[in-house]
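--- STAGE predict ---
source: upstream dedup step, 1 unique chain passed
mode: sequence only
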Amino acid sequence: MEIKFKGIIFDIDGTLTSTNELIFATFNHIAGRYLNKKFTNEEITALFGPTEDVILKEMCGDQFDNAKKDYYSFYTENHSMADLYPGIKNILEFLTNKGVLLSIYTGKGRKAAVITLKKLGIHKFFNLIVSGDDVKEHKPSAEGISVFLTKYNLSKNEVLMIGDAPSDIKASRSAGIKVASVLWDNYAKKEEVLKLNSDFVFYSVEELEKFLMEKV
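--- STAGE serialize ---
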């Protein structure tokens, strides 16, 4: 008999939410104010991995405290630049109604993650949020996946990770769980992702929804 997924782990940026334009604008707000420079989108993307606070400390040094306040203020006030991908809320409602346990595993710090999840009305769907602040090793480490498995006593074959990045695939492989790569964001690293041979690949929210309806 086919195993049904009892737990699903989601990444945030590029998976649930189109947040990249907001992130680029926020980092450039800080770069302009504190460094008198502007980053390209590629330069900002290259910084991803550690939390916002770690990146800001590296960028701004002694001005970190003020830069941090400005970062979250701008991120919150301009959050209308970000949105859910159409259909994501339906998926989360469906999974919740089916009794599936839902977790976030993101490289974002907890503050930015919670701002985004609450602003977009989906915070309530998640049983657990594992942010970059909650782990010693960020993705591609499997630490955030292990936290979910242990907390809810789930078997590896009962859990699916859904994300848009190569690091999501590597973390899932390391944890020994299945992974679904989603490639609907404009900034998705499609070639890199496809080279890593995810268990499942989806190019639209509708494809993912159809798959999940059969697998939980």
